Amino acid sequence: MNLRAEFAPPPLQPAVETLLIVDDMPENLEVLDGLLRAAGYAVKAANNGRTALRLAAEGQKPSLILLDVMMPGMDGYAVLERLRADEATRDIPVIFVTALAEAGDEEAGLALGVADYITKPIKPAVLLARVRTQLQAKLARDLMRDQNAWLEAEVARRMEENEHIQAVSIRALANLAETRDQETGRHIRRTQAYVRLLAEALTDHPRHSAVLTPAYIDLLTRSAPLHDIGKVGIPDHILHKRGRLDDAEWTVMRTHAALGARAIEFAERDEERPAAFLALAREIAHWHHEHWDGSGYPDGLAGDAIPLSARLMTVADVFDAMLSRRVYKSALPADEVHAYIVGRSGSHFDPDVVEAFVRCYPDFLEIARRHADPD
User: Fold this and answer.
1) pLDDT tens per residue across span 64-123
2) Choosing a second label site near 42 at 20 to 30 A (CA), which of 4, 71, 271, 310?
3) Which SMART domains match (predicted)?
């Protein structure tokens, strides 16, 4: 796709160019002023370096500066250095206008960033041609800079729009699963916040810092709402049962992890370039019921064989499930949930994640309060 063609902004409108002329000789200023005004330019004039610097930086900035080299006090080289050192004036092209004819003088000016070099006595046709050339080059540079800035802003806007659409789509899919499990309420929003908290708390941990980059944490947070997408495949009589499941029903319920992972895997196959968040969503959906000691499901993974994304979701999911009311149970007190998680560090849960949970526990409680289910 040709982005420049698709996103091309309106062309710049022509305007009268303002030029700054600098010379300590009044007669030279008069000649330059008359010549340039006759050619249709607006002109500012300065008879010394300090005035030139002030006029270059204030008000309507000049599009081009014609600068004499040999001036008392601050010469043209010093003025050019000051112009280039100031962010407000560094991009204004400068033409040296001077009686100096030595090659070393010209090289010195070019080394400081002068755009062109015109020797006195001035030939009007040559000067106007050089001015026109430099103004056209500046216009092209400005147009390219403005188009690039506009294009970058437009691409950023569209990326933000796409990310918003993606986030809404993820939440819609997650809510589809949750509508079949009506007691979970705001479970999605809470677990998403818990996972981000845990991940950010482990960013300095030597075992996890290489993985938990800001980009990874953003993807992880975006993926978290899909952890129970597989519940859409569980029959209503099991999903909505009031009371505990029997062994046969529990066997069916446990399949939601693999069902969710499989659904996301099918979505990945449909795309030539799968979205990165889908890979994390598949990990979380598949393995967030695994236990650190290998006693979980569906694959009995243990330790670091369980992806970090799933280990983080395990703590977030269990905390929220225990703290929330379900059709088959009442909500448990927060301190009891805290003790349960801490007591199963190294068996059910990754010890590093539990340690992060303990440090973040006040924030967990605040999230639970802020996104509490309606009575």
Assistant:
1) 999 998 898 899 999 999 998 898 898 899 999 887 655 566 677 677 778 888 888 889
2) 71
3) HDc, REC
Do 358 and 342 contact (CB within 8 A), yes or no? yes
- Say if residue 11 is preceded by a cis peptide, omega within 30 of 0: no
Closest CA to 46 of 63, 32, 59: 32
Residue that is written with structure tokens 């280990």 in the block: 311
Start-to-end Cα distance in the chain = 52
What whole-number distance in Å separates Cα of residue 173 and Cα of residue 192?
A: 14
DSSP string, 118-164: EESSP-HHHHHHHHHHHHHHHHHHHHHHHHHHHHHHHHHHHHHHHHH
> What pLDDT shows up at residue 3?
38
Distance CA 71, CA 48 (A): 7
68 strand-pairing partners: 97
Angle among Cα 198, 221, 368 to the nearest 5 degrees reads 60
Domains of the chain (ranges; CATH) run 3-151 (3.40.50.2300), 180-370 (1.10.3210.10)
| pLDDT confidence bin for 373, thresholds 50/70/90 | confident
Name the residue type at position 220: L
How far is 354 from 360, CA to CA, in rounded Å? 10
Rounded distance, CA 19 to CA 33, Å? Answer: 9
d(CA 129, CA 137): 12
Nearest to 323 by CA among 313, 335, 312: 335
Confidence of residue 9 (pLDDT cuts 50, 70, 90): very low
Strand-by-strand arrangement of the 94-98 sheet: 42-46, 18-22, 64-68, 94-98, 116-119
Q: What is the mean pLDDT of the chain?
A: 85
pLDDT digit string, tens, across residues 329-365: 788 999 999 999 999 999 999 999 999 999 999 999 9
